[in-house]
What we know:
Elements (H helix, E strand, L loop, with lengths): L2 E5 L3 H12 L3 E6 L10 E4 L17 E4 L8 H21 L6 E7 L7 E5 L10 H14 L5 E6 L1 E3 L5 H8 L3 E3 L8 E3 H12 L7 E4 L7 H11 L6 E3 L7 E4 L2 H5 L9 H6 L11
Parallel strand pairs: 1-2, 1-4, 2-3, 4-5, 5-7, 6-13, 7-11, 8-10, 9-12
Amino acid sequence: xxxxxxxxxxxVGQALGQRLNDKGxxxxxxxxxxSSLPEAFVPLAADISRSDGIGALPGRVxxxxxxxxxxxxxxxxxxxxxxxxxxxxxxxxxxxxxxPARVIFTxxxxxxxxxxxEWVDEDSPTHPQDFAGEIMLSTxxxxxxxxxxxxxxxxxxxxxxxxxxxxxxxxxxxxxPVYPTPQYGNRIHRExxxxxxxxxxxxxxxxxxxxxxDNDPADRADVLRWMASELGRVLxxxxxxxxxRGSKRCRNDRLxxxxxxxxxxxxxxxxxxxxxxxxxxAA
Length: 283
């Protein structure tokens, strides 16, 4: 049985913690207010953004998963949560003489700045185009430069239960925006996010970085049309003359080469359970 500390035990962290708990591991959930965590988790109240905001850790920490999620898009919020928060966690681990077998950071594909539909993977240049990507990349470098065995998994947009904005858009009947060039989306279902992290925790020598997305970086318009078709609807199209923000296509080859098998390899499997169903089970 391993002691696993999940820092920022929220949307992804709780799904991961449940999987680990089911396998007999002891899960320590760290967050500002841990009162809503499942009873099986050991709650740890902490404000990781403050140098004095973290109390004593468990006597032995075997693994750490830094899965915090910013509640605000403000640059200051990102910096204090990710960069300051990671620095504070690493300092406390070192000060306490902890020797975790691995620290995993849930980073983001925003570290890539490509916007012309390019394919990118772990070896592609990282040129963030906004402060969020810059801070995530700086946090990766802080962790990977530490004395602890470390891995960053660069996640695409996480969706799943309670994160169904695209489904709601289709149900509203809003037109499908069609841009002059495809607007690719890099997605991953919450369950695959949690399962992939669990899988990496079980590897003896995982790589320093992984891209965490599903197998199909589909155009957003195609996803909306597929949902509408599944729901028996036809949505109007809205031609958009502007070029859009641009997009990239992320490869998950390294993660799959390690042996991870996606339960929801594309948006089709991922959204199938999120679409409203009638009494007969039809969409």
